[in-house]
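Form 7-S
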Amino acid sequence: MQFPITRLNINFFKKNSSLPPMKKQLATIFLLFLITEQISFVFLVNASEIKLSKKKIAIDIGHSPVHITYDLFETDYLESGNVVDEIENFTHIDDYNILLIPASKINYTSDEMTIIKTWFANDDKLLWIAGDSDYAGQFISHKSINPLLEFLDSKLRLDSGAVSDLYSNDGTGYRVIATNPGTGTIGGVVNEGVERLLLHGPTAVYGMENGNFVDLRSETIEGVEVIFSYNDSAEMLDQDYSNTESDFYTSLDEKGNYPAVVYEDFGESHLIVSGEVLFSSYKNMYGEEGEHGSAIQGKLFVNNLLNYFYKSKGLPFNFPIFVVSLTLISVIVLYLKQKKR
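Output:
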């Protein structure tokens, strides 16, 4: 990367190499200030999207996740000073602040669910559980995810159908682009700059309270907020031809605005349930452009969401800013000494 202003000052300094010693020192320090200031600016721009650091993030890969590519997410969060591990069991789950469960196809045992629930009961935990569609009857992640959600005493469930949208998509109906950002307490912050999310072959999220189904499009549950919804033209398809209680939205036969990403408050800990694995690199969901070139803000959304819960915790020491400040102070001190002589 080039720094035009710095380059001009280097040329100026070369042309004025006959400056007196003190003025040359001041010119050198000033040049250092410009360089560090501009490097600092670049660091800040690159790091501005991810504001959490020193957090430990676990991705569950031990239950046959639908998508297995998280390289972009991992790279970003590692470079921001976090720990990101793909784990196959929950033996050391207490070491982690965040657990990401990506559309698992293998059921969780009672012991595993107990470990997750105990971990989640601790303060300041974030659990993100993602689903997938019932495409050709292969994925059916709701069969493993919904029992876990019920065990956690969650009021959220994954529909067993598939969301399709023939109008808002990245090249085909099952590569859905959601276009309805929520404006609630969390959505109003998380969705800043976010208008379009890509969810490849997704499902929707509905509510369950006191044994009753809750249509989160028109009804509310205390402590639950829909953060993002699919487009009004979206529809639910039953691709595995099932007829279970999880076919909630499918059975309604109503188009549009199904919940795509939903938050549930667990006091000091937080649950996110989404119809797809937005933190996966698969088909560029964690990205800025779909596979077929559609503009999306998936990467920004995921980062905003994680920032929201950890925005003021564990912020890293910013070395470039420190250097800039120290350089500025040095310039001022040397200038004052020069005036006294």
